[in-house]
Each structure stands twice: as structure tokens, then as C-alpha cells.
Amino acid sequence: MNPNLQHLFNIAAKPKRLIIGLMSGTSLDGLDIALCSVQGNGLTTKLKVLHFETSTYTETFKKEISAVFAKENIELEKLCRLNPQIALQHAAMVNDCLKKWNVNATDVDLIASHGQTVYHSPKKDGNSTLQIGDGDHLAVATGIITISDLRQKHIAAGGEGAPLAVYGDIILFSKEGEGRVLLNIGGIANCTYLPERCDDGKIICTDLGPGNTMMDAFMQKEFPGKYFDEDAAIARAGKISESLLTALKENVFFEQPFPKTTGPELFNLHYLEAAKQKSDTVALSGEDTMGTLNKFSANMIAAGITACIKNKKGVKLFASGGGLENPLLMQHLKEQLPDCSFHSTAELGIDPAAKEAVLFALLANECVCGDPSFFWNLSEGMPAVSMGKISFPL
Asked: Is this structure's pTM higher than 0.90?
């Protein structure tokens, strides 16, 4: 037997594994690195986050990624070059964290790498997705078996490649007798609705629409030096334009049934400009635009969650992602979702900033030692598959 396969077999047979989850989202601000201790699989899984850090990208690196991110036309040479470059940058960040945490790479069993999304095209547009950051380069540069490119199997098996949160949400957060919504507000907002009984086929996991992506993009364009609206200061200073808000809501995506996916390929500054033209609000101030974008994100998130829970009372909503730090956005959501009590995933033992990186660590654990049939028929758009491609360091 190839010794790499024997090593992987030994890892799968261990009672407990050390797995690093890596997540770099559409905000392009940095790499989330979570070192997790994972025991068991499926509903027997016990996970503890031992260390977590977000390693920020340099301005030069951000510009490199932005040149190919969610663009219709890009330089093929640049895309090809970035595939290993991103992996090597991520590997350097992992190695730096391991040194800081005083953890030997030889003690880490797996790296679970999301990679960097450069384009996402759901079923209605051809059903494909692309994350770059080559797993082989990451494995060789760290000396750790790497599981990457996890979204492709989901698409191959009939899903849309996103959101994948449901797999981890069921494992870590489902609770018999308690309805829960796991809301993640990153660039795009998504949620998992876990009903009181998770085996009744009524679990829903879906993208809801824009979270921070349009707000962040507008801030970076109109307020140089600011990458996001800290404490919602700009949005609070503005007034909501009802005509622009109405135009922003007029998109077929919001009429599609669950589950569905989207991305910055749709919800971007071009989308905003088209809505301004349609609503005759081109001259709207930056503050008023930000206030309206904030309300737009909140309205569509709340509308989606309302459709998921269908008048259920006493549902507990656990939030994560950068949007949790936007006080105006959260205020809007609380006002529009009075039947939900609001919490952070920190109350469930997971740092809200680390949740997505933890999810990928869980998916890697399931890839190596899980039983995909566990997920069968739990939710529409959720194929029962093991996700990820395995790269050996040697």
C-alpha cells in the first residue's frame, strides 16, 4: 500500500483528530484559520476550537485577487498564476500560526482548505463554481495532508456548491425539541433552519441575498481608506430611500424557491447603479445610499428567514459572520423578526468569526472518516456525499 494511503487510514482510525479549517470569503479581507480537535463523526462529533486567528491580506494581495474575482473577463495567465500563489500564501499563514501557537505540523492530521472563490454560477446560470488555491501546493508547503475544492462534489451530485453550512450546522447545532436558525452574514447572507425534529425532511439551508458585500464595496469606492462601515456610522447618518429600496428588491432571485445560491457576481456595484438609474436616485448621498443598502440587506434576510420558519414561535436565531458586528443591521433584523430570540454562536461554543472555518474542518473530518449516507434526504439540495479532494505532502 502507498504509505500516504496507510497514513490516511491511520488518521481515519484515530479517536481524535487535529484539523485546521481555512476560510477566505468574498470580503477578501484575510484568511480565517481554526485549529480544531475533532472526535467522532456525524452526530457523535465533538469539536473544540483550540486556536483561532484571522490573518489579514496585504493590499497588494487583495488587489491581485480582486483582479480575477467575480469578473466576466479576466487574464488567463493571472488566474493560472494565482492558483499556486494563493495556496503558498495560505501555507505561509498556517505555518506562522502553528509557530505562534507552539504546535508542530507533524501533530496536525489534516488541513481543510476552502480556497478563494473567484466565481460562482448557480444552476440557473450553468451550475458551476471555482475556488483557487491549489491543494497540492498547500500540502507540500505545510507538510500536512490537505483536503480542498470541497464544493465541486456537491455540484456533481446535484447541488449548487453552496451553501454548505447545513452539513456542519446539523452535526454541531441541531437540538431535539428546539427550532433553530443558524444565520451567517458574510458577503452573502445564508441560513440553516433546523426544525424541532431534524429527521422530518424540513431542514432548509439557503442563501438569502446580500449581507455585507454591497455595503463594503460601496464604502471602499466612495469613502477611500474605509473597508467597511464601522459601527454602521455612515448608514446611521443617512436616510433610507424608499424608491431605491424598492428597486433593489426587484430581482428574480428573491422570487426563487429555496434552496438557492448567489454571490457578488449578481449583488455588486453594477446592481446598485442599475437600481439607482431605475429609481432616479443617482444623486443620492453616500450616507443615504449606505442607510438604504443596510436596510436592503436586513429586509431580504428577514424575509427569507420568515419564509423558512413559517410562523413558528420561539425560534432561536444564532448569528455569525461579520454582519453580527453591524449594530444597525442587527437592529433592523430584530425589529423584523419578533418571533425569534437573537443569540451568537458563541453561546454554542463556537466563535462567530470562526464558524465557517470550523465548518470546513468538519467537512474534512466527514470526508476522511464519516458516512455520507447519514445526510441522506435530510434536506432538499443537500446531496449525501463526501466532499473534498485529497492532496498528500509527498
From this structure: yes
